[in-house]
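Open question from group meeting: does this chain pack into something compact, or does most of it stay loose? Before anyone orders reagents, we agreed to write out a predicted structure and look at it together. Recording both the input and the output here so the notebook holds the full record.
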Amino acid sequence: MTKINTLFFAILFFSISLIHAQDRTVEWDPELTEVWEPVPEVITPVVNGKLPSDAIILFDGENLDNWEMFSHDALRDPDAPDRTVRPAEWTVDHGAMTVVPGTGDIMTRQSFGDIQLHIEWRTPEKIVGEGQGRGNSGVFLQGLYEVQILDSYDNPTYPNGQAGSIYKQSIPLVNASLPPGEWQTYDIFYEAPVFRDDGSLVKPAFVTVIHNGVLIQHHVKIEGPIVFRGLPKYEKHPEKLPIRLQDHGDLVSFRNIWVRELR
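Structure tokens returned:
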């Protein structure tokens, strides 16, 4: 064996030994897999009905100060100084706010992007109508992307329009509806879409929905703003927009609405 070959095999053996030594170091030294930054912010969790310390209260049963009547101008530029603002015209009674049919949708005065949203809702105890005409409303994330509210307890309709659906897009995994007149909860985890400066889409919106403690939408891709007819299509909009609640002509009530901004 020549000196060159001997040197080559010596280097090769040394390299292999070093790699195995590094592997053994990573395997046996726990400190090499510990990550110390960033340190999560300390908040108080939900305990005995008390909200997280970083929650933004949107409705606590007292008034509609955090809400206004919906306008399409707000979806173009919610911070425009000349935008018309009309106080919310729904009613507040016994800790709940209720749709006043015919007045129109309402929306938050504050705008949001990625969020965790908690909202409680109730359809009328007295059953009137059927299908989409029974306890119909909706939660519009960024004013555009709807999680359907409907009395879906023993009330057949098209599944991508029942309670908990991403309206006309995604069918819930299960129907977790309670009987009409009972309070129900949505816990919604929403990732807003991202656009390039030229208006093209970088990343679509995604949503996870928990209905009455049951997972019904699991990180579902939203295909675009909700449309009743036709197919959805994304159009560039501001990074943060209001949350919107729908007046669909039914006496749907809401309470205990809060949100956490996801950074």
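Observations to bring back to the group:
The two ends are 63 Å apart (CA to CA).
The chain has two domains: 3-33, 56-261.
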